[in-house]
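Quick start: read one record
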Amino acid sequence: MTKINSNKPHFLMIGGQKCGTNSLYNYLVQHPLVAPSLQHEVHYFDLNFDKDLEWYQSQFPELEPGMITGESSPYYLFHPLVAQRVFEKYPQIKLIVILRDPAERAISHYYHEVRLGCESLSLKKAIATESTRLEGEVNKIIQTGTYYSFNHQHYTYLARGKYIEQLQNWMSIFPKEQFLILKSKNLFSCPQETMNKVFQFLELPSHSLEKYLQYNSGNYSQPKEEIYQELVEYFQPYNQKLAEYMRIHL
């Protein structure tokens, strides 16, 4: 008889995508009291929700006393159904969010999709056609609960940078004290200081690494200044709302 692993995650790293989640998770699981999930980016609450909870909990290792575990799936923050799904299973779970300047995130996201072979349009064209590509997709996800939208996962260069909307969705379900919101620029400029905030949030003793390597960082040439400025202007009102309502200045 196969033993069912009854372990459950203590924390979720929910995003955002291309904001440093990979680095943050790698730093965290090097702590002696944190065990990583058995596979990277489990994606249970977004892409694998057709599977049962036993399958999900089998993605985590058997824990020694005093240890904790958790996973990182950067699509969770953005997916419209994930917050409610997580709350129904784990209402007390701790949620870690890391945010990056949305213009820089959009550019990084675009080149990530190019590397994956998912994007053939130019950056300018991809941004211009985003609303067309996404038309009706969110409604289908919400209405069916089972619909997978390739476009919603891959072609959301602008939409994913509207952090205020995503955080308000999550915070309408979970209390604010269950969130730790970090900034990627702080993670890479002051990694130890940032990780100390994570350890404190997760009630872990402090721990330091010899080196804080940057994981999953893409190499790409910067776009034309004109495109970058258009992105900065596009995100300005959303960043302003983020600053007003959450006191987060990116």
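The CA atoms of residues 87 and 174 lie 7 Å apart.
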